[in-house]
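### Sample
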Amino acid sequence: MYYARLVCYKLGTGQRRVAERLAKEFDTINRNLPGFRGNVYFFDDTTGEYRALNYWDTKNDAENAHKILFPKLENELKNFTKEKPTYKLFEVYDPFEGGNLFSR
């Protein structure tokens, strides 16, 4: 088992460069935090909605990262939107974790 942190925010249309800059900035921070496993970013430029999905070894790692990352994101977003970002933590179940993805 491991954990995921999903963050959702809106920038409005035409803000892809801002979203890319934020993704790069926060990706760099994430990679230096304990328990980091990986990131995936989702962009919907037509609606101006963006998502960041971070993977963490433990729930504690995800919560500690959130305490560092979320206030920074909220502060950055103040320059572009009045909408507050949202987040949720998930337990991740991977049926192949520790096994061979190609086994029969």
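The beta strands are 2-10, 36-44, 49-56, 86-92. This sample (ABM domain-containing protein) is used throughout the tutorial notebook.
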